[in-house]
Amino acid sequence: LLGQILDHWFESEPLKATLATDAVIGAMASPHTPGSGYVLLHHVMGELEGRRGAWGYVAGGMGALSHAIAQAATARGAHIFAEKAVCHVLLGRAGEAQGVVLQDGTEVRSKLVLSNASPQITFLDLIPQEQLPKDFVQRIRQLDTRSPVTKINVAVDRLPSFLAAPNARDGQPLPHHQCSIHLNCEGTQLLHQAFTEAAHGHPSSRPMIELCIPSVLDPGLAPPGCHVVSLFTQYTPSVLAGGRSWDEQARNAYADTVFDCIEDYAPGFKASVIGRDILTPPDLERIFGLPGGNIFHGGMSLDQLYFARPVPSYSGYRSPIPGLYLCGSGAHPGGGVMGAAGRNAAQVAIKDFRHL
């Protein structure tokens, strides 16, 4: 349990609760949920520029990372087709992958196909169901993809000034503006209460908020004097109590709750807001293809990790379709901007390719 890990190493409840947020990020789970301790450890896996467990901002925004990977690939002869939706995987007579078919009918032939889409999209949408074992399809359908995350992007005309650490007179950024700021995290019980509300179909009345201001470190993201604020919030259920959907009124009501909470810590924040973009779990699914809005393509619970990711017998990147590989967050070792699943899948595919 997460609580046991934190209690062993720390005494301060606010510190334990702040660390606990990394154990429930992207998970419809409470800090008291068995297995949550793994998710915390998952978030300090690896290193950044020699610093173990470190995280960083990407200059130019997260899209710049994709662009850098694309440039590296094209420099080595890859051809990249953006905005070309894949309709289905092309199969040969023996049921092996032979390429993909685009929505405009174009066929792209290939000896191997690697899918960075979720297991659900890859196997339930892009492959005819009769080509897959029934028990495999059933397991993919049963994957837990619940997500509590609503992402809110905010444009502001000045830096937030927090009561606990007021801004300097010149308005220049302070050290805490360059970090991840955790709000409503004074105790793990607060996080558990927020989870309990969402489990009953109600957006948290006091949501867990992780606030970042990337424009402090990357001024090109906003005009001079202005900033962009990224709010990673939870808990919000995909479907509201009574089967209600996330209409405009529900979205704005939740965002107002989040902004009211920030206002308590940083008076004047609401007055500084120029615009906001609200992405609920259904929005994240519709726009980015994340099943259930889950940023990890599926829960990072112990029953969906290691040899069971995405399902038992297929944790090694290969699939029931010869020549089709899974290389995204739904594969081992799971989500996070680390590239481990892609690297591992590529090595398996290269090994197989040599025998074709």
From TrEMBL:
Main location (coarse class): mitochondrion
Amine oxidase domain location: 34-178
Source organism, top-level taxon: Eukaryota
Gene Ontology CC, one term: mitochondrial matrix
GO molecular function: oxidoreductase activity
Locations listed in the record: Mitochondrion matrix
Role of this protein: Probable oxidoreductase that may play a role as regulator of mitochondrial function.
PANTHER family linked to this entry: PHYTOENE DEHYDROGENASE, PYRIDINE NUCLEOTIDE-DISULFIDE OXIDOREDUCTASE DOMAIN-CONTAINING PROTEIN 2
Protein name according to UniProt: Pyridine nucleotide-disulfide oxidoreductase domain-containing protein 2
Lineage: Eukaryota, Metazoa, Chordata, Craniata, Vertebrata
Gene (name only): Pyroxd2
